[in-house]
Amino acid sequence: MLELSILGFLYDAPLHGYELRKRITALTGHVRPVAESTLYPAIKRLENAGLLVRTTEPGAAAAPRHVLSLTEEGRRELRRRLAEPGDRDVTDENRWFTLLAFLRHLDDAEAQAAVLRRRLSFLEEPASFFYDGDRPLRAEELDDPFRQGMLTIARATSRAELTWLRDTLRSLGG
Length: 174
Prior knowledge:
two-stranded antiparallel sheet; three-stranded antiparallel β-sheet; mainly alpha
């Protein structure tokens, strides 16, 4: 997801590494903080793959700044990754939000709808954090108020997302 975030933010505009790191951190927050030790190797991998280029500009104080820009191949790669997300990208909430943050860069409404339908299908499957054998438990079946809270919050979040997904699919013609 780090590489998807890099490609997604650079799709909009060239950025220097510090600004890119700030934007990725704002997107992922406390869930997945971005350290320089992970960001810069990822940038180097994408650069070596021909997906981005680095140019040097004079710095505001003394040191020059390296500005990162996507190549046309990088733009194609971002759109490919958006159109063909892995199962975990659709089922893991944090990965899903990262994918969703850049889905607008996929210009084809049908391709966008296909990704949203995959998420919708996942959310429509009965699931729980807690089970009685193979049967998912509902919040009202639990004695533990904290587990009840988890399920109540998850259910409300899922309902809101299901409504948004269905409305957005209708607006996309899907």
